[in-house]
Amino acid sequence: MSSRSKGGRPGGIRAGGRPAGASGPAAAGAPEARGGEPASEARGRALAPEVLGGESEVLGGALAPGVRGGESGASGGMPPGQGGDPARNLSGRPDRPEADCLLEARGLSKTFRSGQEDILVLDRVDLTVSRGASMAVLGASGSGKSTLLYILGGLERPTGGSVVSGGSDVYALGDAQRARWRAKSVGFVFQFHHLLPEFDALENVSMPLMLAGASREEAEARARPLLERVGLSGRLTHRPGLMSGGEQQRVALARALAMGPRILLADEPTGNLDGRNASMVNELIVELARAGGMAAVVVTHNAKLAAMLDRRLVLEGGALREG
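User: That's the sequence. What structure does it adopt?
Assistant: Structure tokens below.
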């Protein structure tokens, strides 16, 4: 039974715009790690209201088409990575105009403290993420693949270097402004779907749009075709507990696309799925990224998924290299 309320929002939405009982990277964003805490701890905290609430504009452009009548144009150009070690300087599409550069990592370093030892996970990594490009990030467990993804998405502050979008360093922004950039520009898909169990599929996908200020009618009008596109037109009113693992992950993929992001970041999106469902999700990620002109960065151990993407990068010893 649906949990919609007469007030026009799904049941459990508080006046401040936060779903009651929501936790983890639900809706379209996730909390940022604070003061060097592990990303896993940050992802376990409740969804902060500023992740999707507040002002809709940052770094130019509005949240998404149909949300407050805004546009969804690209964040603008920036110079691609220049100089440095060729093993670390991996431009997404060096022959493309600068305006196609959506995100650029410049000299990223990340160090974790373990007892008396500093562990270097990322060592001056450069990476350009361009419109329409898709890439797989491979590497051994513990090599720093997920850490790189969270840094690119504005979730975990690097020890050194910068992440540039629209000409601005994401980590030079204030917390609320960075959260708005993240909600507008980045779609996240995690290994676990993180759907809100008390809401049905349509409500889960509508949630980030409503938290950004859209009415329920506007949000559902945008959410419904996304669910249809991932093959779930017959499951709109089903809650997560009534869906298979593959269906849940497809809802999560639709939710990640709800705000019309320019960048899709996926962390082991098929890690919990069987072969058939993994193949279906793999194909959807590739199809949606290419058709939508987005950039996709996918951390995976799945060789079949990696082979479907434009580029394969390997993170080893803190450095990225072509796979």
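Residues 275-292 form the longest helix (18 residues).
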